[in-house]
Amino acid sequence: MTIIVTCIAPVNIAVIKYWGKRDEDLILPLNSSISTTLSTKQMRTTTSIMKSPDFKSDRLWLNGKEEPLNHPRIQRCLKAIRERAREQGKFEDKCKLHICSENNFPTAAGLASSAAGYACLVYTLAKLYGVEGDVSDIARQGSGSACRSLLGGFVQWSRGSNSNGSDSVASQLYQADHWPSLKVIILVVSDHKKKVSSTGGMQRSVETSELLKYRVKHCVPANIEAISLALKVRDFDKFAEITMRDSNQFHAVAMDTYPPAVYMSDVSHAIVNFVHEYNAACGTTKVAYTFDAGPNAVLYVQEDDVPLVAAMIQHVFPPLPTTKQQFISIPMKPAVLPEDLKTSFPPHEPGMLKYCMYTEIGSGPSQLTDPDCHLLLPDGNPKKIAS
Ligand code: DP6
User: Fold this and answer.
1) How do 3-10 and 44-52 pair as beta strands?
2) What is the DSSP string of 92-111?
3) Measuring from atom 1 of ligand 1, which residue has the nearest CA?
4) Which candidate in 21, 206, 290, 353 could, as Cys together with 247 as Cys, close a disulfide (CB 3.0–4.6 Å)?
5) Do the beta carbons of residue 307 and residue 337 sit within 8 Å?
6) Is the predicted pLDDT of residue 183 greater than 50, yes or no?
7) If pLDDT is split at 50, 70 and 90, which confidence band does 194 have?
8) Per-residue pLDDT at 330
9) Which residues have C-beta within 8 Å of that of residue 359, sequence separation ≥ 6?
């Protein structure tokens, strides 16, 4: 019988970064990590999977382009979910699959696209085969950070200690509505593909960075505990400091890697300076930044402070005269910048930011029931093909 299932999955942004594996095949991390799941209203992966006795082979389309399905990580996820289906006594026929997936945000630009992508693949496969229970150990085998995108709100991926990875799973610390005033602004510096992948960079760090060993042993365990407490009591000051320090340390590890893995750009550093100077001018912490393996910044800001911070960003990082800087946004009150702030923060040269996105913490993946949402036509071909 032909069946089609379509699901969406969110992006997640780590505030305590995962960097370094102790097992490359099973994707077992050196340290635990903590992330926030972002709302799927602004950023999401959508995946449709159809199984049919008429299909001759498994096929995959990513963002409208057909890609080979023999990638070892995709194969590992497929094998693991079919095994789980069998263990749970779910019927499994030998039908081939057509998989079609698209992101509504730049792929591989340090915006956690592989996390949302693998989370969506595994979640949709689980729905297709009727697999029940936690599948974060399977998503982890696609891309480590993907296991955290299977849950909403504030999520911890525990390092685990079993050699088969059975306890290296994601769990929810707090639901999406735990801290409703905590908002997120993403500053997209570049939407080009990054030069060193996370996978390659972290492998090189494990081989060559002494600082990574120190971070894993002495810094991460204490920071996991401290940030969990800050989240529990919604202490923005503490949350912000730990988040920024962890991001800085992760990039220091990348620099300590030999040869170094450079992910932040001059624009990223200008954003870091702006945040510290703005916090100092306000006399209290208003903004926190974190950077993944790319130049784009993710800022955490409390809701009441968002209008002024957004206006400041547009003032300090103005668009090119020919383009209107896009601020893709959930509803936001307008703000008028006080003159003294304007004069103490002179604008940078125009065009350093491509666009900004204002979003919030959201829930985990979900299945879409409206047949219009399917990315595949009834004959199993994609609705959209990239030109
Ligand atoms: C900097 O999960 O992309 O975003 O497991 O090799 O696929 P692989 O790596 P990936 O690494 C993410 C690294 C990070 C930090 C984080 O998300 O925790």
Assistant:
1) antiparallel
2) ----EEEEEEEESS-TTSSS
3) 292
4) 290
5) no
6) yes
7) low
8) 76
9) 38, 39, 41, 42, 43, 183, 184, 185, 186, 330
Strands (E), 262-322: 287-290, 297-302
Distance 380 CA to ligand 1 centre (A): 32
Q: What is the mean pLDDT of the chain?
A: 94
> Residue 335: CB partners within 8 Å, gap ≥ 6?
307, 308, 310, 311
27 CA closest ligand 1 atom index: 5
Rounded percentage of the chain residues whose pLDDT exceeds 70: 97
The residue whose C-alpha atom lies closest to atom 5 belonging to ligand 1 is: 144
How far apart are the CA of 29 and the centre of ligand 1, in A? 10
Using the mean position of ligand 1's atoms as its centre, give its distance from the Cα of residue 115 in Å.
Answer: 8
SS3 category, 368: strand
Q: What is the pLDDT at residue 91?
A: 73
Task: Round to whole Å and give the CA distance between 22 and 161.
Answer: 10
Residues in the ligand 1 pocket, defined by CB under 6 Å: 14, 17-19, 27, 33, 114-115, 143-145, 198-199, 292-293
Q: Give the alpha-carbon dihedral of 334, 110, 146, 28, to 10 degrees.
A: -140
Kindly report, residue by residue over 345-382, the tens digit of the pLDDT: 999 999 999 888 999 999 999 999 999 999 999 999 99
Amino acid 171: pLDDT: 98
